[in-house]
Amino acid sequence: MGWFRHNMNICAFLQSAPASHKIRICGEDLLANPDSELRRIVCWLDLENNDAIITAIKHPENSPYAFIDPARAPMRTSARSTGCCDGSTVAISIRAGKFPLSRGSLC
To answer: Which one of 11, 20, 100, 101 is most buried, counting C-beta atoms within 10 A?
Structure first.
């Protein structure tokens, strides 16, 4: 019941957000057509969109941020210091003015 209530709260919040500030992502579509769905997300975020970017998104294990306190990361940012190293957290950096993406919404 808690999952449903939380998702309904997300749906209610998103109704107040302008259409240009939100995007709906269907997990099944993302898994079935990752390249086209990732391009759609990257375009919505108004980020550079090319094959190298899409490949990098599909392989986060190659990122300098893929490790706790990675030596290769700029400014040596530590996942421990941000409090998000439980292995289940997905972080997406977005430009100012956009609302965060939500996964698995019911709306």
So the answer is: 101
